[in-house]
Write a structure and sequence with these properties.
Dihydrodipicolinate Reductase, domain 2; 14 strands; Rossmann fold; alpha/beta; eight-stranded mixed beta sheet; 30% strand; six-stranded parallel beta sheet
Length: 328
């Protein structure tokens, strides 16, 4: 049996403790062995489910650990490129939280470092690993709803009462489009297999230098697209793919089985409606297992950096359409 991929985590982020560290611990072919944090209290939350976890006092010490094969980077957005490149230079495979970069061009240095090193380097874009999205892609591209005509996407939550949250701070790469726009845009790209031709309309509202609301219209080669992304609205997440012979709706596509049950509803002619549910799938675990398979066996990784760069390019197009170059 192949040796498990040994993982370290740079930083004791809440999301890492609540989602990704347990996923690495649970994933087949993965072994969570180390964490970098200077705060013992934060380390305790990880050691509660992985008692043998080694704790390094800083990020460089973890990268120097010869018993770590791969690192997961959940740092604030503005630090992703720096520490991804440093991890690659240290000879580690890298899974870095989205968005990897704040502009599409910034991906290029990481792609070049990946290619030169031969390491597996990817953005932690988990939804494409979920069977809900894989099934939706197969249905849409297989003609289950006829010719795809239009896609609607919505993702919103309200964190107005948390001004110190990194998503509300421009200096840490905050904003709704970097945080959740990647999901509404990437979902359409993944399922359809297409990239946008243009973004004729984007209305963006800023607070304290970060985007908190965006309404977007885009044109893809074979369909039109509309989305709403907000950090100032009540919780909502949904994606609808509308064809000329049917409609496919994804319930809870982004926080599967947390916000709601992950399911697909398909409506076709004659009032035919069927629903497919995915109550047990954990996209974080699937993501880690797919990453480990790429490291150990050279298996194709479902979300290469080139795909993630394409989603960031669409975010860049949205800011440009609104007359903004990014966070203001």
């Amino acid at each position: 049996m192949a040796q498990a991929v040994r993982w370290g985590i740079l930083g004791a982020a809440n999301f890492a403790r609540e989602q990704m560290a347990p996923a690495i611990h649970a994933a087949r072919g993965a072994d969570l062995v180390a964490l970098a944090t200077s705060d013992p209290a934060k380390a305790a939350g990880f050691q509660a489910f992985q008692p043998r976890l080694r704790v390094h006092p800083d990020y460089d010490a973890l990268l120097a650990d010869p018993e770590i094969d791969a690192v997961y980077i959940p740092l604030p957005n503005h630090l992703h490129i720096e520490w991804a490149l440093r991890a690659i230079a240290a000879g580690k495979h890298v899974l870095v939280e989205k968005p990897l970069a704040m502009t599409a061009d910034a991906f290029d240095a990481v792609i070049a470092a990946r290619d030169a090193s031969g390491l597996v380097v990817a953005e932690a874009y988990m939804i494409v690993h979920h069977p809900q999205f894989i099934r939706a892609r197969d249905l849409v591209q297989g003609g289950a709803i006829g010719r795809l005509c239009h896609v609607d996407a919505a993702f919103s939550y309200n964190n107005a009462d948390a001004p110190d949250n990194i998503r509300n701070r421009p200096e840490t790469g905050g904003g709704g489009l970097p945080d959740i726009g990647v999901y509404t845009f990437g979902a359409a790209r993944f399922v359809s297999g297409e990239d946008p031709l243009r973004v004729p309309y984007a209305d963006i509202r800023f607070e304290n230098g970060v985007d908190v609301f965006a309404q977007v219209a885009a044109r893809f080669p074979s369909f039109t697209y509309g989305a709403v992304v907000s950090m100032r609205m009540f919780n909502r997440q949904e994606v609808v793919f509308q064809g000329d012979a049917g409609l496919l709706k994804l319930t809870c596509p982004f926080n599967a089985n947390v916000h709601d049950l992950a399911q697909i509803t398909i409506e076709t002619a004659g009032g035919q409606v069927r629903t497919e549910r995915f109550p047990t799938a954990n996209h974080y675990v699937h993501q880690v297992e797919n990453f480990c398979a790429a490291v150990r066996d050279g298996a194709p990784y479902p979300c290469p950096l080139e795909f993630s760069r394409g989603t960031q390019a669409m975010i860049d197009m949205v800011f440009a359409a609104a007359g903004k170059g990014g966070a203001q």
